[in-house]
């Protein structure tokens, strides 16, 4: 196998290892942040390398004195922020009289800072080297390559580029000390003309300087988990049945490269929405507290999904209130009263009015009604005003209307009728004569027209003669005169009653007779309607058992008034 083929195989193997490290995490990585705040998980480095060997092959003492340019490729995987493992390869094929390929692995240590990273590594592996032959470089292709151990110790500095979300960086320098040991075997003759290959052993130390491009993959600190919070908004501070409730979910730490999926559920019924905003119709909900749950997902891995929950309270509609008044509040029987109801719904629900009363009749279906009191007995009527809203909630209030008793009729006064004089017949001073006919007819007619009335007849006499003389005889005479006068007065009243009862057919029980002190020989008649009163002050009832009527000796003639 030729030297060129060997070099190709080595570089291919190293490239496969480095690419495998990057690909292992590339599919699951988000864009890394700045190196100092969140160091990368994998670093791939490729760049220019300078190799200066210093040493010789013993015992021929053929020196390595090349300045060899080449390439360096490495891949590092970090277990945490500071420590990782590295595999690398270096190819220096074009030295003056040699070629060196190194393949090594080992720990790497770093100190990440903002935009800069210092690192150090210690690697061990194998070197694929051919020996120096400065006498005849033309025979280089015929000189044998040998495998031997190699050690690499060194470090460097990286600069994090701000482009492409800190995906790339520059390896400002990598300075390593490389040592390798090779056993080239015995001296060998070259089949063609030229200097023979001189065998021997080589222990070579070299300075290896590299610089180039760095690619970051992943990061040590995982992305923050998705967080989700949801809240309820309503058109008013208090939610009543029928109000539309809006639930809004707010997700943080979402990957802008992914499309989140939203879903909702809850004990308030189905919540259909595929966005972070959902609406809930509370029309069919009873009063109570309800829970709503939201879910957001941008993947199936932990941290790529989150839940939220919130609650809202539906408050029952408050019942209406009503006040009730009547105007006027006091009426006479038969007079109407206007009843006014003032209803109010705290949530402005439509109201329906109705009325009832303990007496009378009331009509109305709006905020006013009319109470009719026709035929209602005096007393208090209680009126009830009712309202009901469209949710069936009711309220009632009462007022009262006083129906007054009608005023009592004006007091009926006794009516004085005509008076009969008894001065014409000196011999019979108590006899009712024909001259009294007209007066007695009027009295009878008035009594007949008011059958519930009564008559009062007061008989009077002129004053008794004064006492003349002294002594018992004079006193007895005076007393007899007084009794005579009183008796005549009683006879006058009794005789008039007798005529009214006998000739006019009046009921005797409706006629009362008295004696009075008018000071004239007369009989005065008073008509006493029902309910009227007759003042008997100064009058003396006549004992009709003791005073008999005086019969008339001639029929009473009828006279016509002219």
Short summary of the structure?
This protein has 562 residues and is mostly beta strands.
Helix content: 10-25%
Task: Report the principal-axis shape.
Answer: rod-shaped
Biggest sheet architecture: 8 strands, antiparallel, barrel
Number of continuous helical runs: 3
Residue runs with pLDDT of under 50 for 5 or more positions: 1-35, 134-142, 556-562
- CATH fold descriptor of the largest domain: Porin
Question: Number of domains in the coordinates?
Answer: 4
CATH class of the largest domain: Mainly Beta
Task: Output the radius of gyration.
Answer: 72 Å
Mean pLDDT: 83
Strand order of the largest sheet: 1-3-4-5-6-7-8-9
Mind telling me which CATH architecture of the largest domain this is?
Answer: Beta Barrel
Number of strands: 28
Terminal CA distance reads 186 Å
Percentage of β-strand residues: 35-45%
Given the helix and strand composition, which structural class is it? Answer: mainly beta
Keywords: Signal
InterPro entries: Ig-like_fold (IPR013783), PKD_dom_sf (IPR035986)
Region (Disordered): 325-349
Signal peptide: 1-28
Task: Tell me what you see in this structure.
The protein has 562 residues and is mostly beta strands. The chain folds into 4 domains: 3-217, Beta Barrel (Porin); 227-314, Immunoglobulins (Immunoglobulin-like); 321-403, Sandwich (Immunoglobulin-like); 415-541, OmpA-like domain (60s Ribosomal Protein L30, Chain: A), CATH 3.30.1330. The protein contains 3 helices and 28 strands. It has helices at residues 3-26, 437-449, 472-502, and strands at 42-58, 62-64, 67-78, 83-92, 99-112, 116-130, 145-160, 168-183, 201-217, 227-233, 244-252, 261-266, 277-281, 288-297, 305-314, 321-327, 330-331, 337-344, 351-357, 361-363, 368-372, 379-389, 394-403, 415-421, 454-460, 511-515, 522-528, 540-541. It has an 8-stranded antiparallel barrel. The protein has a 5-stranded mixed β-sheet with strand order 24-27-25-26-28. The longest helix has 31 residues, at 472-502. It is rod-shaped, with a radius of gyration of 72 Å. The protein starts with a helix and ends in a 21-residue tail after the last strand. The relative contact order is 0.08. Mean pLDDT is 83; it is low at 1-35, 134-142 and 556-562. InterPro entries: Ig-like_fold (IPR013783), PKD_dom_sf (IPR035986).
